[in-house]
Amino acid sequence: MIVVLKDNPNQKQLDNLIQWLKSLQLEINYSQGKNTTILGLIGDTSTVDIDLIAALDIVADVKRITEPYKNVNRKFHPEDTVVDVSGVKIGGGNFQIIAGPCSVESLEQIVSVAESVKASGAGMLRGGAFKPRTSPYAFQGMRDKGIALLLEAKKVSGLPIVSEIMDLSQLSLFEEVDLIQVGARNMQNFELLKELGKIRKPILLKRGLSSTLQELLMSAEYILAGGNGQVILCERGIRTFETSTRNTLDLSAIPLLKSMSHLPVIVDPSHATGLSKLVKPMALGAAAVGADGLLIEVHNDPVHALCDGQQSLTPEAFDELAECIRQIMPFAYKANH
Ligand code: PEP
Ligand code: MN
Questions:
Q1: Ligand 2 centroid vs 127 CA: distance in angstroms?
Q2: Lower CB density within 10 Å: C or N end of the chain?
Q3: What is the second-level CATH architecture of the domain 2-63?
Q4: From atom 10 of ligand 1, which residue's Cα is the shortest distance away?
Q5: Per-residue confidence at 172, pLDDT binned at 50, 70, 90?
Q6: Residues 223, 263: contact at Cβ < 8 Å?
Q7: At 103, which helix (H) or strand (E)?
Q8: At 218, is the pLDDT very low, low, confident or very high (cuts 50, 70, 90)?
Q9: Which ligand lies nearest to the CA atom of residue 310 in the structure?
Q10: What is the largest CA-CA distance in the chain?
Q11: What is the mean pLDDT of residues 235-245?
């Protein structure tokens, strides 16, 4: 971190600043030029409050040289992290498709979708039991019953299951859920992230609706800093001025995140576009730019789905998508490694 001082800084304030920085175990490189005085801070600056320093009377500017995230940073962990979801590996060359309905609706529905997506090659089954809905009058999910039905589908299909947690109070219900999803709306629920850092279960962390990549990585940092290194990042589209799609899929996030961090990155083209006809082309695009996996909404009867039917694929359409992905994967892998 570099601190540029204003001309003729007050000596007492400067001494105080240097003393304080030293108390943070930082080494100070003091460099007095003709016109400008610069302090170079050497050491771990991840806990230094940059805004606090910038606000000081004697400071003209502050610049970070290293990123404020450490545990998720590829610089300190060059190898890809491989996340193990009950034996199903993702990352480090292991590509996985997570598929299933937006919401668990009945035993018949979830078992039927589980069996068909498994036959098409999905590695995990998704299904929402707690649903974050914009309207309080919309279907809110089957809650604990939904989790119980997912567990039935896991038993029948053998697929690990993925479901979204919305609040810390639900954590005990997720004991047998293989991968816990933190949705876009909870990406910055820091108390939830801290608790998920304490458990030893993989976490799927979705990018917030209007979050930067650095904010996403800082949220992942919360989980890793707590001791849980098994985190998968998910690009699911961001808010822009465009209204033709539900969100705007930021495909550039994939190669960027993969260069910034060692964590696996997957893409959710269902929520990113909101339109079933765009799911396959965007899924292919995601695989081509180096994603480690996909999250795809599949429903046995999309027209009558209780949630997100317009963006859900039929099992047949999903089968076709999975086959196309299989065909491009060897080329996509080579192109990105
Ligand atoms: C979901 O995956 O069901 C979901 C609600 O996604 P997001 O948090 O990305 O909106
Ligand atoms: Mn959905």
A1: 9
A2: C
A3: 2-Layer Sandwich (3.30)
A4: 184
A5: very high
A6: no
A7: none
A8: very high
A9: 2
A10: 77
A11: 98
Per-residue pLDDT band at 36 (split at 50, 70, 90): confident
Give residue 307 CA to ligand 1 midpoint distance, Å.
11
47-54 average pLDDT score: 92
Sequential DSSP letters for 2-67: EEEEPSS--HHHHHHHHHHHHHTT-EEEEEE-SS-EEEEEES--TT--HHHHHTSTTEEEEE-SS-
Residues 6+ apart with CB under 8 A from 318: 99, 116, 117, 120, 122, 296, 298
Q: What is the pLDDT of residue 150?
A: 98
Of 94, 93, 91, residue with least CA distance to 230: 91
> In the chain, what are the domain boundaries?
2-63, 83-336
C-beta 128 within 6 A of ligand 1: yes
CA of 65 to the centre of ligand 1 (A): 34
pLDDT tens digits, one per residue of 299-330 = 999 999 999 999 999 999 999 999 999 999 99
C-beta of residue 39 within 8 angstroms of C-beta of residue 3: yes
Q: How confident is the model at residue 207 (pLDDT cuts 50, 70, 90)?
A: very high
Which of these CATH numbers, 3.30.1600.10, 3.30.230.10, 3.90.1150.200, 3.20.20.70, describes 83-336? 3.20.20.70
For residue 147 the two structure tokens come to 């989790």
Q: Does this chain's domain 2-63 share its CATH topology with 83-336?
A: no
CA distance 38 to 59: 10
**For ligand 1, mutation pick of 139, 268, 299 (most atoms within 8 Å of CB):** 268
Please give the distance, rounded to the nearest whole angstrom, from the Cα atom of residue 306 to the centre of ligand 2. Answer: 10
